[in-house]
Write a sequence for this structure.
């Protein structure tokens, strides 16, 4: 009997080495291990529940585990309208969170006060706490919030603390124009006009 040998091919770090900077490594690790504190006050909470469901699967982004103590959280989701009476509570929760910490404004009310243009409503949470990402929409679609989460992850990875706004996936104005153009062409075709 001949001797049986087994060749093993080593892959990844076992065959070489990788270099990085410590802050880049920490940014990479932090962006996939977000512990969220949901501060839910109003109707945007319905979409927040949809977002937390298996269909949208926030676990893909390492952000599915809520923490109901701010001391265990590093991502504050502000979901819904904030009244003047709630403002000190929100500020206190933010101050109790550990560093580094990030804030996402979920929906138009949290971002700017929405259509509540009155003395009881805070015109955007950035009047109270620093905000990293704004997700417009009344309420925003879960896909838009996921875009906001991805935007935040990019900022965490690069250490970028400038605020970011989630853009619509499709420009509503251009969709309107395209639909209008198509309808106009159909009308002209029905009348026998040249397009
Ligand atoms: S943005 Fe719209 S859905 Fe969200 S809390 Fe305000 S009114 Fe409700």
């Amino acid at each position: 009997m001949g001797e049986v040998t087994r060749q093993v091919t080593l892959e990844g770090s076992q065959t070489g080495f990788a270099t990085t900077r410590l802050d880049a490594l920490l940014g990479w690790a932090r962006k996939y291990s977000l512990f969220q504190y949901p501060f839910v006050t109003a109707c945007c909470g319905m979409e927040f529940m949809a977002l937390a469901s298996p269909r949208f699967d926030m676990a893909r982004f390492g952000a599915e585990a809520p923490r109901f103590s701010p001391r265990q959280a590093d991502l504050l989701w502000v979901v819904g309208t904030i009244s003047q009476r709630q403002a000190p509570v929100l500020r206190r929760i933010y101050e109790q969170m550990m560093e580094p910490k990030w804030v996402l404004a979920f929906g138009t009310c949290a971002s700017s006060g929405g259509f509540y243009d009155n003395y009881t409503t805070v015109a955007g949470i950035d009047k109270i706490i620093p905000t990293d990402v704004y997700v417009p929409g009344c309420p925003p679609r879960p896909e838009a919030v996921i875009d906001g989460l991805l935007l935040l992850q990019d900022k965490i990875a690069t250490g970028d603390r400038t605020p970011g706004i989630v853009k619509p996936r499709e420009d509503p104005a251009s969709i309107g124009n395209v639909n209008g153009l198509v309808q106009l062409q159909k009308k002209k075709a029905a009348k026998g006009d040249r397009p």
